[in-house]
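okkk here we go again. third time trying to get the zinc ion bound version out, last two times i messed up the smiles copy paste (missing a bracket lol). double checked this time i swear
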Amino acid sequence: MDDTQCFEYSDEIEEDEGICDERQGTGDDCTELRALLLFLLLWQSVFKVADRAIIVLIKFFKIFLTSIGKILQAETLLNFAKIIPETLYMIEKKLGLQKDSFIKYAVCPKCKTLYSFDKCIRRKPNGETVSAKCSHVSFPRHPRQTGRRPCGTVLMKTMRSRTGKPFLYPKQVYCFQKITDALQDLITNPNFLENCEKWRDRSAQLPENVLGDCFEGKVWQEFQYVDGEPFLAASNNFGLMLNVDWFQPTLHGSGSIGVIYLVIMNLPREERFKPENLIVAGIIPGPKEPKLHINSFLQPLVDDLIDLWDGVILNTTRFGCQQMFRAAILALSSDIPASRKCGGFVGHTAKKGTWKAYLIINVMLFFSCRLK
Ligand SMILES: [Zn+2]
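finally!!
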């Protein structure tokens, strides 16, 4: 999906392009600016300062230095004030800390089918680009032709950049991160692999027949050996817990977005749920929870999990030492509506399973009436 990047036109990216044009060679290699930004991020981390507070502080710095530069008529100070970034996105970009490994898919607002961005744009013979329509057919073997019609929903909307240039952008976007990429980052963290092995010493510490954590549970024990091959009994293999839930992303308003995230069960309980040890696999766009199922959002995750079950080669150190790692989902932890949707079933309030079930019921009713 690297080809999708050319369609990204967020305000921040445009801002980024503008800065590069105007101040090339003055922003990225300014040691004093890097020192200032690094100190602010370190200060934020140590004293748990909110992101918004950092932005307000840095904007104040910018205005203050500009005012002083104008009073003193110091061109150097004015140039320095100019290259101070104003958003957290730009601060992280300037420091090279940005690690956005999310793959973006366009989502059909109606049926929630995923498309790569390039598949959503259609070129007319005159060169004009227009949005493609959703080609998903929910019931391809429906007996009636009208039931086999594609969804037909328009996928892209026209937006305008700051310069007034129109461009097409998906109406809804699904962000997905490969578990393999997230695991690659985690295993190079100090002590991560050591922490994942600590559960093996638990049996000596616990009294017999005491269930203290998932490690004493039936599923964990069953996955020690799978088909005669060691899985959890061997190192470098992870048991994952899948979690799905919907959250309200803003303080005010009623919209909600879904988050698919994974927990590495090998870690001790006190480490397992720390934000830095969680894997955010997908962010389901809002503003409302999908009514029927989330199968389309789970598809990239399933593809990734198949690779992880077979085994993937990852770097265990930053210097290139490689080993094979495997992973499998052992548990699903979510509320009732989310667990139904994760399992590929319809929602818990559904009265009919599928249109096929509805058809079978009608046929049975027809024959029972004929027999009478
Ligand atoms: Zn559709």
